[in-house]
Task: structure prediction
Amino acid sequence: MSLILIAALPFLGALLPGLMIRSGRTACAWATASVTLTALIGLLVHAPAVMRGEVIQYQLEWMPLLGLNANFFLDGLGLLFAGLILGIGLLIIIYARFYLSRQDPMGQFYTYLLLFQGAMVGIVLSDNVLMLLIFWELTSLSSFLLIGYWKHLPEGRQGARMALAVTGMGGLALIGGMLILGNIVGSYDLTVILQNKELIQASPLYLPALILILLGCFTKSAQFPFHFWLPHAMAAPTPVSAYLHSATMVKAGLFLMARLWPVLAGTPEWFYIVATTGLITMVLGAVIALFKDDLKALLAFSTVSHLGLITMLLGFGTPFAAVVAVFHIINHATFKAALFMSAGIVDHETHTRDIKRLGGLRHLMPVTFTIVMVAGLSMAGIPLFNGFLSKEMMLDAATEAAWNGNHWLVPALATLGALFSVAYSFRLIVHTFLGPKRDDYPAKPHDPGFGMWAPPALLAVLVVLIGIMPALMVGPLVATASGAVIGGDLPYYSLKIWHGVNAALFMSIAAVVGGLVLLAMHRPLDAAWIRARRPEAKAIFDALMRAVTGAANALTDGLHNGAMTRYAAVFTLAVIAAGSAAWFGGTNPAPAREALAIGPVPLIGWILLMVATVCMVAYHRNRLLSLVLMGIVGLIVSVAFAYMSAPDLALTQISVEVVTIILLLLALNFLPKHSPVESSNARRFRDGTIAVLGGLAVGGLSLAMLLSDFSQESISAFHLANSKPGGGGTNVVNVILVDFRGFDTFGEIIVLGIAALVIFAMTESVLGSPVGAWLKQRPINPLEAGDRHPLMMVVATRVMMPIALMVGVFIFLRGHNEPGGGFIAGLIVAIALVMQYMASGFDWATARQRYPYHMIIALGVFAAAFTGIGSWFADRPFLTSNYGYFQIPPMGEFELATAMAFDVGVFLCVVGAVMLGLESLSRFAHRAGDRPSPYPMDIDPSRDLPQEAKDA
Amino acid sequence: MILTYALIFTTGCFALALLMNLWRVVSAPGVPDRILALDTMVINFIAILVLYGIIEGTAVYFEASILIAMVGFISTVAYARFMLRGNIIE
Result:
């Protein structure tokens, strides 16, 4: 099976449980299990090749220029982890079928589980670092869903949130670290990165990258001081805890450390950060675990401790320690998953996980007892079980390690950790199962059904088999996986029970004896532990989160309090500050051009502009008057465009001004005529200062831009040179619109059409609401003039109509070579139509409008699209234009370009959009009881003539 | 020769007229007078654009002036309708 399919299968399969739950819980579990089983088989098919030392690869190019490729690869390490994830996943699926009660939504559970599984498999199979990061984030998200699965439990929700916060934060750091790593190497492919050890370790960015990556690994793998989230995640259902905290989620951090071991390990920085953290975590976790009464909490801290152990081994940086780490990963996954599942069984059957309320279950639950016994002894490191082997080898590796020249510190602490590990393992077995039978269990305990104990029993069998015949059972797997971690020759090691009398043996014996002594003294020690004042991680975390959230809220509320003025002020000031910093901080080119002299007429235009603007500020509370002043500003801007050799812009601006004024007047009809004074003088002064600053900054920058040359060569020269030969038109502006940047224009007319449709839709919904009813009933203003459709206006606009349409056609046709084009022509025609609406009335004009404006917009978009698609038939890219010269006898030679068909689309779209918008807005003014006038003109002299006069 | 002086003179007149329009905008007693001042301003600008085209000897400004002439009055009509009826499209 191809690797991408193995990674994708759980994701695809995640759809199944939700559907299959309708056929019953067993069917749902089988469907889920079959997905995982298929992926597992697909993986095992590759196992022989990987064992031979081959690396299976799968490459899918997605965005090669960005280094984004969906590359997967499978080597020994990937095989080990993917096998653990899928294999234990399969057992968990079976176990969960019997663990979850009827009230729990099982379909949801399996969906989350498969999503999580897919994300984990994705991490271990990814070759591309960026993809790995995405899968990494996915595990954080899907584990959030799993941990918070019991939504009714506040601990579950809080635990899930804490896990997400901690691992998500680490994920963020990891992204930074991985990007730096990819940058150093120049490739985001793991296989490439792994071959550049010297390059990475010599880079000055090695340490930052290392710290960021380790932050990600430590948070995920619950290393001190980020270990606190793991015990809180125990609020999840037991199958989740067993899966996440034995084989998968927390091992992701270990996986990444092992994966990057060849390039990151071996430096003092690596040793001191990783080994020290691992050592502290191992000892601390083991000590806390001894004093936990909750079975799952005990196992959680034991997991923290064992993760610390593996981290420490990886931190040693020696090949032998790496082999031990790989071996212990296997062993820990087997016994810890079995223990978690057994703890779940105890909880399920006795309805409590409190060790102090348990004891004497030996005879009541013999099967469970056997499983816990086997797995627990393995966790304690007792011979004949697999935990013993890796613990011996760990102690062996620890004796080699020197911490800052100190040769006994690491071995002593490792022995201490092992000692506590023995103590809590025996406490788990002794205090839960041995001792006298009690009669105050919350429920009547008995062994569960086969389906529930079979998965942990299978793991327990593995524990024993690996313990007795390590080389036979996992020898090749350890060799291949370690080979992948080390990336070179394997060191000498032997997987066997008896290594002879050496230091590790004595340390081991000391640990077992000490652990038993500790257990015997547990009662007084526990009392002392409870009395002692310990920092409570959750309280610290909550306080920290409150502080961070408070600070974030204060910042965002300060900047974004919902008032437009605040946004504008913050934005303007920020831009001014950034611009000033750039301006005064950088080197500025001296002005390269002379300022042109200003003539008397432009000066007068400038005075008009300034006075109108000042008046606007003074009179802005009178809304109609400010609209008039806006008209002056618009007029001068239009004329200025014409004067400064931008006739296309001038034509557009003139038409847009008219449409804007009409639009605003339509809206103003429903607004108060005056804006009230709402802010204090001090505030107005402050806002005025900001406005003046912003104006001066923009003005100054514009002047500086106009007086200097561009630092890069402008694109204008290209456009000027290619307009005629490439686009077939001499009007560069129009050729840019319909040809060079035709695709942009295509998008813009679509947006324009959508905007008009949105205006229409909003009008419809408002008119259908109570507001619409209120609008219809609003009183008539007695001051209104009586003349609705004045004679003069009606006649004038009708005379104007054909002229305006002709001008529109003229402007459109000449557009490609002279100022004009579809956009301006569309505006002119729309204005000609609006004139009719204004003069002869809405009903009169609507009755004569044969095509709805929606259709005109659609026609426009289609015309443009088909023009673009047309070039596909000539095997050219979308919107490639062509032109030719034609001769029709009475007329001279003329030019036709495909761009003209595109321009027709622009034209239609503009007409439709403007008209639809204005028509929609004008419908607000309809009052109930308004009857369409039978006459287009209120006063028509011809109506008053006697009939005979008309006949004559 | 005489044409040059005539052009300068006329341009000067229209420019002066613009300033007078502006004076009206600033000082008029109500909105209607200001709308009329704006309308006059529009007409004066048409003239100035045409004159500028004659001075420069180009027809480029002609379209702009024709368009202003054709649609410029519509804003004025819209303002007027707004003041008379409130609603400009009935």
Observations:
- The first helix of chain A runs from residue 3 to 13.
